[in-house]
Write a structure and sequence with these properties.
The complex is a heterodimer of chains A (187) and B (120). With 187 residues, chain A is mostly helical. Chain A contains nine helices and no strands. Classes of the chains: A mainly alpha (187), B mainly alpha (120). At the A-B interface, helix 2, helix 3, helix 5, helix 6 and helix 7 of A face helix 2 and helix 3 of B.
Chain lengths: 187, 120
């Protein structure tokens, strides 16, 4: 069985063979789409920004040089910048509606259990959206993209240790935030 | 598959989380706090699941990108050919110019020498 061509080899080949970009696209489209979707909260903007990510990558592909940063991290950096611009332009970080995607309980749950689960998930989601952008990004990369701390570090431009520490601090602040909202809800 | 249908969540590093919980939380509060964080992480794992973009979107964007990549490659090739052509023409002009200059200088020197010979 032949080994799949590396990202770097594909990047080099694009100069003579445009189809090589198609291979890279197929490799990363779902991951980039997911990242953008969870940062914007709707499919319409996710499609628009994902298109822009790949067009920008194509236009600047000659600028990509492998200096220890993988192509995927370069692509995520483009996505990060475009999403940051999007948030700045729209100034609507709070205006995120992910309920269709995330409030899916197990089919075996009773209706009352499902309602309780959904309520709890809504609270968690609201708490996540209160986090600074970098922490939201970290949670998306770890939970949705299931990347390791080292991979997340390459994307966010931090060390593996820094990511581990940021992750733990994020969990603790989320827990505190949730404890606060639950006590308020219980009053 | 619909655009919002989640994929199956795959491996997540539970062992690392457990190790950190044991290390980070104080003994007396450990059980309650660790349980709360575990439950929160479980909910997040259930919520933050990968979604699939629509097939039409993926296909249309791919076709459009490959077309753009193709025209970009052609433009680069033309640009390179034009660049090489201009550089070659420039070199030829320089060589011809230098040859004309040398030829004229020789003629001028020869004319000066013959004039000097006649005068002396």
């Amino acid at each position: 069985m032949t080994e799949p061509e590396s990202d770097l080899d594909l990047v080099k080949r694009i100069k003579t063979d445009p189809a090589a970009f198609g291979v890279l696209y197929e490799r990363y489209i779902t991951r980039i789409y997911n990242y953008v979707y969870y940062r914007t909260g709707n499919h319409h903007d996710a499609e628009d920004l994902t298109s822009r990510v790949f067009y920008r990558a194509l236009m600047h592909i000659e600028e990509y040089v492998d200096r220890g940063v993988p192509f995927s991290a370069w692509l995520y950096r483009i996505a990060h910048n475009l999403v940051a611009n999007w948030h700045r332009d729209h100034a609507r970080r709070q205006d995120i509606d992910l309920e269709d995607a995330v409030l899916i309980g197990p089919a075996t749950e009773r209706p009352d259990q499902a309602a309780e689960t959904n309520e709890r998930r809504k609270r968690i989601l609201a708490a996540i959206h209160q986090l600074p952008a970098e922490r939201q990004e970290l949670l998306i990369l770890k939970f949705v993209e299931q990347l390791s701390n080292a991979e997340v570090g390459q994307i966010l431009g931090r060390t593996e240790g820094a990511i581990k520490s940021l992750y733990h601090r994020t969990l603790l602040s989320l827990r505190d935030e949730l404890a606060g909202t639950e006590s308020t809800a219980g009053e | 598959m619909s655009a919002t249908e989640p994929c199956n969540p795959s491996y997540f590093d539970d062992a690392a989380l457990e190790a950190w919980l044991a290390e980070a939380l104080s003994a007396q509060a450990a059980d309650a706090q660790a349980q709360a964080i575990r439950a929160m992480v479980d909910h997040m794992q259930a919520m933050l699941v990968p979604v699939q973009p629509s097939m039409n979107f993926v296909h249309d964007l791919e076709q459009s990108l490959i077309r753009t990549a193709g025209s970009q490659t052609l433009q680069q090739r033309y640009r390179r050919t034009i660049f090489i052509g201009v550089a070659a023409a420039g070199s030829i002009v320089s060589v011809v110019g230098l040859a004309v200059y040398v030829f004229r200088q020789r003629e001028r020197i020869a004319a000066s020498l013959s004039l000097w010979g006649r005068l002396s």
